């Protein structure tokens, strides 16, 4: 498979503190990759750096194009969708408006994309006119996922989608992620729950203290390496 | 009868204040910055109408689109000069830079127009309509109609168009808006343009009945600030309702006492609201849910 996303020697951080230190990895078109590691390993920073939401240095290429000089919105328009940690829906806007605002195509195509999202998440269709802040946590997570799909991304960045959800809701969200991946969208999934992530991702990248400490098919990663990413040693 | 006439006058004044407050709150929401030049933009709109009147010797309603466009341009300049270069600095930087822009506008207006009060042409005519014993100035009705139309158009754009959704998303969470592909900087520029256009329209509407001087903006920014505080900091409907309430209060109290007494009473009422209901009338209507 050809690489859709190539990251070489990425360094990023906040203020003077470095959160990523020389990270390199690739994601192929249509591939689902789990990004695993403990709190503070740099998973969220890596996703934000890919979107240009934190200052970063290094070589970032998406479908062959250099992402470095591009603003966040331009990166999104190239085909990168983002589901942030904590959902961050637009609380004062309706469910439909939350979706529409992220649509990058003309009005008619946008309406079709909204219907596609409603087909994927029927709960949202029932709440179409309600303000997003009225939704439950699980519904907000689905809205956040649906919103990211409105840009018709080729690569979806998911940051801790199960965080704060009940096991049942987390299952529903991961089931949707599985369907999105099966439809051919590449997914880079940052997740603390390794079991859930590895259930949908055939490959995992392990981060520890801002460095890649393991990268390969899930079957090839030993339990020792996995434990090391989460607990050190 | 007298009460109804006062009501018409109060609503007309309130409609113009509502435009000022609306422009103020839109910029506040989009940038978290207080635009202290908003009152001086109202003054600039009024004097712009005064300057255009001899060039376009037609009713004020014909001048309105010209004033809207030119003031939107001034709003863009304000954003480019006083907001964008300072957006990553502490909020006090924008606070001071907009005060500086206001002072520049005041002094520029004083040089160009002098300190005398000026009047813009009426929107349609300056007759008084006599309806069943009531004497209602045409200009008051025109102010209500035009301000109502402009506020309605603004609400429609924000509620029903993709531009409006993007402006609202930018106001609610600019970083997330970027992550949804929204060109946030462009939206902020558009917001400043709309805010200044609202101020310019208010200037044209007010400058006929209430005259305009280079220093008249100071009073108006206070009114906008109070309207937004009374309505609920950041609430768009609250700003409009707050502006109407202020004007009705001002007209009502000054008809019984005097204008200075009405202003004093207004500030006392504001203090009472801040103590009893600090979130304002429409505050905290929007909450996050985990």
Automatic annotation (TrEMBL), chain A:
Provide the protein name: Amino acid/amide ABC transporter ATP-binding protein 2, HAAT family
GO BP field: L-amino acid transport
Which keywords, in A-to-Z order, does the entry hold?
Amino-acid transport, ATP-binding, Nucleotide-binding, Transport
The organism's lineage is:
Bacteria, Pseudomonadati, Pseudomonadota, Alphaproteobacteria, Rhodospirillales
PROSITE patterns xrefs:
ABC_TRANSPORTER_1, ABC_TRANSPORTER_2
Q: Which family does it belong to?
A: Belongs to the ABC transporter superfamily.
DNA-binding: is it a keyword of this entry? no
Any GO MF annotation of the entry: ATP binding
Q: Where is the ABC transporter domain?
A: 5-231
Concerning InterPro entries, the annotation shows:
AAA+_ATPase (IPR003593), ABC_transporter-like_ATP-bd (IPR003439), ABC_transporter-like_CS (IPR017871), BCAA_Transport_ATP-bd_LivF (IPR052156), P-loop_NTPase (IPR027417)
A matching Pfam family: ABC_tran
UniProtKB/TrEMBL annotation, chain B:
GO terms in the biological process aspect are:
amino acid transport
Tell me yes or no: is Protein biosynthesis among this UniProt entry's keywords: no
Question: What UniProt keywords are attached to this protein's entry?
Answer: Amino-acid transport, Cell membrane, Membrane, Transmembrane, Transmembrane helix, Transport
Can you cite an annotated GO cellular component? plasma membrane
Q: Name one Pfam family in it.
A: BPD_transp_2
Entry GO MF terms: transmembrane transporter activity
For membrane topology, the record states: Multi-pass membrane protein
Where, subcellularly, is it found? Cell membrane
What InterPro entries is this protein classified in?
ABC_transp_permease (IPR001851), BCAA_transport_permease (IPR052157)
Segments passing through the bilayer: 6-28, 40-56, 62-85, 92-113, 141-159, 180-205, 225-249, 256-276
Q: Which family does it belong to?
A: Belongs to the binding-protein-dependent transport system permease family. LivHM subfamily.
Name-wise, this protein is: Amino acid/amide ABC transporter membrane protein 1, HAAT family
Organism of this sequence: Azospirillum oryzae
Biological classification of the source: Bacteria, Pseudomonadati, Pseudomonadota, Alphaproteobacteria, Rhodospirillales
